[in-house]
Design brief:
By secondary structure, the protein is α/β, with parallel strands linked by helices. The chain has 21 helices and eight strands. Helix 3 crosses helix 4.
Length: 438
């Protein structure tokens, strides 16, 4: 098996050498070679089918790692999947999430599922919160939404049995990580703690993560101390950090308990979970923004090819209203605009106004106005005179004043691009204009 697979993989590397990106056609050829090598080595055809499907999913459109050509990248992906497959005879890693009711455990389980899948893991979420009404249904719905499998048992099954059966299901389904959602209470009590201790003893979690609501302030410190006294808590997840919390809970819990903060939750979106970086939180607390987190979010979310296309058109002063609309759509994918503005150094005071503008439908109105234009009007807005403005306003359910404002904002953006190209910065605040200012 090793000689055959090695020879075929070397052929893949040779065939793809010099190519800038892995195309689907290239990948089909590479996967055919890998499939043949595995079948010749007497690997079960179902295992081969699943293995090849996972390699395809990871390889299509993948960004090349530094120093690797496309062929080597395919080999690396195959290597990672082989390691994962050979390791599946062992025990999946268990991440056990604990915390009070309402702290955001179930949502955090789903966010971790999204994050781990992006890292190439195969997570299984286990619905072991058997007491809170609709907790199991909530996790199942989240699993359907994010495309991560959920293990649950019939109503009345004890939480300990759900946890044990979830671990076994992960082994059978070739999952490498189990994310265990456990029950909380409105306050810490002995019955809850005893059950969590029994579950931890049965599944031996690699990580026990305490989910704490940052909005509860100093109460979060007392909760963390209570859980840490009974369970081997290995890390903290601070949720609702996009609210009015000022970071005091983060400072206090870390100092009092010594437990490291691993993640912070921001918003309800499935991707609203960030790795914790002390320096970045310190910058946010001091109102200095968080450019690195903003850059990471952009890299994960934005269509790179589309962004580069628009950037090139901007530098050439050829940006159109179609490009303008495309950028608005990309911005919406990044999450709540208020969060994004807070990450920009010196723009924190504008965050509330920015979010208010979005909540009031400003971006939706802009999109509706642009959608009501013809293709020719989007590409040549100078054609839009009074009669056309009235038609566009009627078609978008807005006023001619709204249409005029969008065209003015677009004109200012064009002027900004031309000035940047010439090394000059114009007066005024174009960014404020995009948020609905006049």
């Amino acid at each position: 098996m090793f000689e055959s697979l090695s020879a075929r993989l070397q052929g893949v590397v040779d065939r793809l050498r010099g190519k800038a990106k892995i195309t689907e056609a290239d990948l089909d050829v590479a996967l055919r070679e890998i499939r043949l090598a595995l079948l010749e080595a007497d690997v079960n055809f179902r295992v081969v089918k699943e293995f090849v499907a996972r390699v395809r999913e990871r390889a299509l459109g993948v960004d090349l790692l530094s120093g690797l050509n496309p062929g080597q990248q395919v080999v690396k992906i195959v290597h990672d999947e082989l390691v994962a497959n050979l390791d599946l005879g062992g025990r999946p890693s268990v991440l056990m999430l604990v915390g009070l009711q309402g702290s955001g455990k179930t949502t955090t389980v789903a966010k971790l599922g999204v994050r781990l899948r992006k890292e190439g893991k195969r997570p299984l979420m286990v619905a072991a919160d058997v007491y809170r009404p609709a907790a199991v249904d909530q996790l199942v719905q989240l699993g359907d939404q994010i495309g991560v499998e959920v293990h649950s048992r019939p109503v009345g099954t004890p939480a300990l049995e759900v946890a044990r059966s979830g671990l076994e299901a992960a082994r059978q389904r070739s999952k490498d990580v189990v994310i265990l959602d456990t029950a909380g209470r409105l306050h810490v009590d002995d019955a809850m703690m005893d059950e969590l201790v029994r579950i931890a003893g049965a599944v031996t979690p690699a990580e026990t993560l305490l989910v704490v609501d940052a909005m509860t302030g100093q109460e979060a410190v007392r909760v963390a101390e209570a859980f840490n006294a009974r369970l081997p808590v290995t890390g903290l997840v601070l949720t609702k950090m996009d609210g009015d919390a000022r970071g005091g809970a983060a400072l206090s819990i870390r100092s009092v308990t010594g437990i490291p903060i691993l993640y912070i939750g921001t918003g309800e979106r499935p991707d609203g979970l960030e790795a914790f970086h002390p320096d970045r939180l310190a910058q946010r607390i001091l109102g200095m923004g968080d450019v690195l987190s903003l850059v990471e979010r952009v890299q994960e979310t934005v269509d790179r090819d589309e962004a580069e296309r628009v950037a090139q058109r901007m530098m050439e002063s050829r940006v159109s209203l179609e490009d303008f609309r495309s950028q608005l759509q990309q911005i919406k994918k990044l999450g709540p605009i208020g969060q994004l503005v807070q990450m920009i150094p010196g723009a924190g005071q504008m965050a509330s106004a920015a979010q208010t503008a979005v909540d009031n439908g400003e971006l939706r109105r802009v999109e509706a106005i642009i959608d009501s234009m013809t293709v020719e009007e989007r590409r040549h807005p100078e054609l839009i005179k009074a009669s056309r403005r009235r038609r566009i306003a009627s078609g978008s359910g807005t006023s001619t004043a709204d249409v005029n404002r969008v065209l003015k904002q677009f004109s200012e953006m064009q002027r900004l691009m031309r000035s940047l190209g010439g090394g000059r910065l114009p007066a005024g605040n174009a960014f404020r204009g995009l948020l609905g200012g006049h």
